[in-house]
Design a protein that fits this description.
By secondary structure, the protein is an all-alpha fold. The chain has a single domain, classed as MetI-like (MetI-like fold). It is 74% helix and 1% strand. Helix 3 crosses helix 13. The N and C termini lie far apart (54 Å).
């Protein structure tokens, strides 16, 4: 027993970490490998019909068709616009809430409320807000003399209406991350600049934003990965419609799998989507590391 106890003491780090590593590998690596293998087969989710090897056929059909390129375009358009406004508004709100004023904590809490709601619930509420006939948004617009707008039923408005919802819900997350970064900036930098006669604008542009760049890149990375994977708001509000107007790569793969039962094609779409997200994340991390080195 003493030998077992000594062995356990020496290998305690492995005893606690190895089960966790095995669990993570099973929960993450196995689904990826399963999806990769399935992407080279044709399968319609039938216990009576086995997998049929088709090689690269699913990938060829995906790249030669029209739905996948358009889904990629919508995914990046959704991510780019949402990320731009979330970062811009997040930085603006963080700079304001970093100051001392009456009701600061209550204001912070109010801004964080959209983030704590579940995306599906947010989608349902905004679907009612966007409703053309009884929605409060069109009611306000008509009260001001404006026209009735079909926010989710128009192919030209639907995607941008969903972007507004994503910005509304997730800008507080960016603000929260940046507030943490602002609290870590040393006050000595500001004191030295104030002694030299720097204005408030110069303090923001010359000290705050440069020192906040690593935190900004962290927020960009987290939101970029998350916004590219957005599914719940899109599906709960439009299911990819009208037509294919809001069909992103996530929605496309879902439709291929659970509407058309083409699990091989859906797996191929997900593998390409996974590689795109990983590539963008790796590029962002590389840029972030270079920025930190330059600082």
């Amino acid at each position: 027993m003493k030998k077992i106890g000594n062995w356990a003491d020496k290998n305690l780090k492995y005893i606690f970490t190895v089960p966790t590593i095995i669990f993570v590998l099973c929960m993450v690596l196995f689904p990826i490998l399963y999806t990769l293998v399935l992407s080279f087969h044709s399968w319609r989710m039938s216990v009576h019909v086995p997998w049929e090897w088709v090689g690269m056929q699913n990938y060829v059909q995906m790249f030669t068709g029209t739905r996948f390129p358009m889904a990629v375009w919508r995914t990046f358009l959704f991510a780019a616009i949402a990320l731009f406004f979330e970062m811009s508004l997040g930085i603006f709100l963080a700079l304001i809430l970093n100051r001392s004023f009456w009701g600061k904590n209550m204001t912070k809490t109010a801004f964080l409320l959209p983030m704590v709601a579940t995306p599906v619930a947010v989608g349902m509420v905004w679907k009612l807000i966007y409703e053309p006939s009884i929605g409060i948004l069109n009611y306000v617009i008509r009260s001001l003399g404006g026209p009735k707008i079909d926010w989710l039923g128009s192919t030209s408005n639907a995607l941008y209406s969903l972007i507004i919802v994503d910005i509304w819900q997730w800008t507080p997350m960016v603000m929260l991350i940046l507030l943490a970064g602002l609290s870590a900036i040393p006050t000595e930098s500001y004191e030295s600049a104030l002694v030299d006669g720097a204005s408030r604008l110069q303090l923001t542009t010359k000290i705050t934003l440069p020192l906040l760049r690593p935190t900004i890149f962290t927020a960009v990375l987290l939101r970029l990965i998350d916004v590219l994977k957005t599914f719940d708001i899109l599906y709960s509000m439009t299911q990819g419609g009208p037509g294919f107007a809001t069909e992103t790569m996530n929605i496309l793969s879902y439709r291929q799998a659970f509407e058309f039962m083409e699990f091989g094609e859906a797996s191929a779409t997900l593998i390409v989507f996974f590689l795109i997200v990983m590539g963008i994340a790796a590029l962002t991390i590389k840029i972030k590391s270079r920025v930190e080195v330059d600082m």
